[in-house]
Design goal:
mainly alpha; two-stranded antiparallel sheet; 4 helices; 30% helix; binds zinc ion; coiled coil
């Protein structure tokens, strides 16, 4: 290896004028890697994948919500029902305990006319209900 003294003299016009800057030769250190190198993932994990404990198709938050609702109900608190439960349009008739289908069941405001169990015709029933409603309205005005 050639030392500085063995080199031919540098011509004056090429000589670099050092401006008092510190010679940093040899001062640089080997930078450490910011992150350690991890072994390949295949080594860390076994070949059999971990099975997720899934007992219900519902999300954990949904289950939690339902549990909270039941707790509230048990405590006698008002529970706001999920709207999805209401979207189910198949109601059962309280009179004939069959599905309250349009055929044989007619609604007049809050009341349902059930053909199967009715002791009067629909017209009679309807007139009765109309009368009830009219009376109720009059009472509400007073
Ligand atoms: Zn019915």
């Amino acid at each position: 290896m050639a030392s500085a003294s063995s080199l031919p003299p540098v011509p004056p016009h090429l000589a670099h004028q050092f401006s008092g800057q510190k010679n940093l030769a040899g001062a640089a250190t080997v930078k450490k890697r910011p992150f350690p190198i991890h072994p390949k993932p295949e080594i860390l994990y076994t070949a059999t994948p971990l099975k997720l404990a899934k007992e219900s198709p519902e999300a954990r938050t949904t289950l939690w919500y339902h549990r909270k609702q039941k707790e509230k109900e048990a405590a006698g608190e008002y529970v706001k029902r999920n709207k999805q439960q209401r979207s189910n349009r198949t109601y059962t008739c309280s009179k004939c305990s069959e599905l309250r289908l349009p055929l044989g069941h007619t609604q007049y405001y809050g009341s349902w006319f059930c053909m199967k169990t009715a002791t009067q015709t629909f017209e009679e029933w309807r007139q009765e209900k109309e009368e009830e409603r009219r009376k109720h309205k009059e009472n509400a005005k007073q």
